[in-house]
Amino acid sequence: MSHGFLGYDGSTFMLDFVVTALVLIIPALLASLYLVKVRRNYTVHRNVQLVLAGVLLLAVIAFEVDIRAHGGWRAIVDSRQSPLSAEQLETAKQTLYLHLVFAISTPLLWGTTIALALRRMPKPPAPCEHSRLHKTLGWLSVIDLVLTSATGLLFYYRAFIA
Ligand code: HEM
Question: In the prediction, which pLDDT does 2 show?
């Protein structure tokens, strides 16, 4: 039985919410990069990044609390009406561990990128001496988040759709 809104067996509302957020964050990120690279609208780029980080942080905290309240990911996966085979469960577990590598490093990298940008960039934000490092940190953050999203969606697929 599904308690999520995407209709997959065994999933929960918060799991579906975070999966949806992981998909929606990609176009929002592309819009922010377009703003900074093509339109050179640095203030809107900063605002979009701060809102994205805030929304993601709140969603992830709510998600973690919800998963714990449901007894952890194994209990959620085990509530499927059509249980996973031992082999499928092992693959899902490995995908989850890979996902955790990116899911844990992303907020650390994002936090560093944002904290340094806020501290070192002029107000309103504009190209400056910090630009070089910010661009490197910014692109690494983007790649990390995209990998978090891709591996998170792969785990969701393997645990609840396959
Ligand atoms: C985690 C959050 C952020 C990410 C992932 C991010 C990402 C990026 C990336 C990838 C670029 C380089 C685009 C290019 O290749 O031309 C960039 C440029 C820029 N960002 Fe961010 N950014 C973030 C937060 C911020 C914040 C908080 C500020 C302002 C305080 C800011 C201000 C700027 C500015 C001014 C540039 C232009 C630098 C230049 O062209 O010299 N960014 N950002």
Answer: 55
- Alpha carbon separation from 49 to 36, 38, 45, 56, 138 (Å, rounded): 11, 16, 6, 10, 10
Check pocket membership of 36 for ligand 1, CB cut-off 6 A. yes
Q: How far is it, in rounded angstroms, from Cα 3 to Cα 69?
A: 14
Of 135, 137, 140, 146, the one to substitute when testing ligand 1's pocket (max ligand atoms within 8 A of C-beta) is 135
Q: What is the DSSP string of 52-96?
A: HHHHHHHHHHHHHHHHHHTT-HHHHHHT-SSPPPHHHHHHHHHHH
The answer, yes or no, to whether any atom of ligand 1 lies below 6 A from the CB of 138, is yes
Which residue's CA is the nearest one to ligand 1's atom 4? 138
Which residue's alpha carbon is at the smallest distance from atom 28 of ligand 1? 46
* Mean pLDDT value across residues 78-102: 94
